[in-house]
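Record passed on here:
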Amino acid sequence: SELTDKGYVLFFQAILIAEFAKNLKVKAISHGSTGAGNDQVRFDLAFQILCPDKIIVTPIRDMKLSRKEEVFFLKSKGVKISWKKAKYSINKGIWGTSIGGEETLKSSTSLPEKAYPTKLSEYYKKIIELKFKKGELFSVNNIKDLQINNIIKLEKISSKFAIGRDLHVGDTILGIKGRVGFEASAALLIIKAHKLLEKHILTKWQIYCKEQLSTWYGNLLHEAQYLDPIMRDIECFFKNTQKRVSGKVKILLNPYRFELIGIESNFDMMKSKIAKYGEINNEWTSDEVKGFIKIFGNQMKIYHNIKKYD
């Protein structure tokens, strides 16, 4: 869901709309969400918290309009577009593109090649380098830029390889299952490269706790809980873990797939001179490690030595 969920974007949009509505001193705010998805919760909740005096107008939800009825209405008003292309609902953003259609409403069918807006156009492998500074994407191929520009730049390079396509199945806030297609090449590469860097730099307990909190944070964000103070608390933890997450990650791009080659970082814990995994150590003797193993297994030994009474 970290690749497909646009919920956080919509909630931020709702926050900005609420502030704009207050500045304009309008009486009502309208949005076009249906009654079957997540976005209605995100919009309504943000408006109820930030501008509770505003009336929320939702014609599509209230009139229970179907997609076919919406298309008929648009045609009746003289809107002329290629309705065949409108067979798929495509939402493109900086982080990726979501794709919905007849196939995603079923559990047994996949999206055809024609449904994806970006086509394979790069057939020869290419190596790219991403540099991170305190957890944020600092440069692409040694060219420094703002994070948002780096994401856009990386997407232009990687999307030509048709990387980052998949179908996501998730739970909606309303309790029903949902299915959506997506292509998010830049997002996938950034997430995987960042995680690899973290594996080399963070301690195992930092990684473990961050993974647990990331799941909670993602679920809360997905379910429109961004304004809950727990989110600020979790963000403080995330920010603190990123103090050392700086370095370079090399990635090999191929049509439809990629490979993480490796990393370079001043904080790489594999550079330690204490020991090399599976080979040599310089900090403990054979007897010391035998003693460690003996103590380390104490609780399991106690458990298995207790007589069974059942």
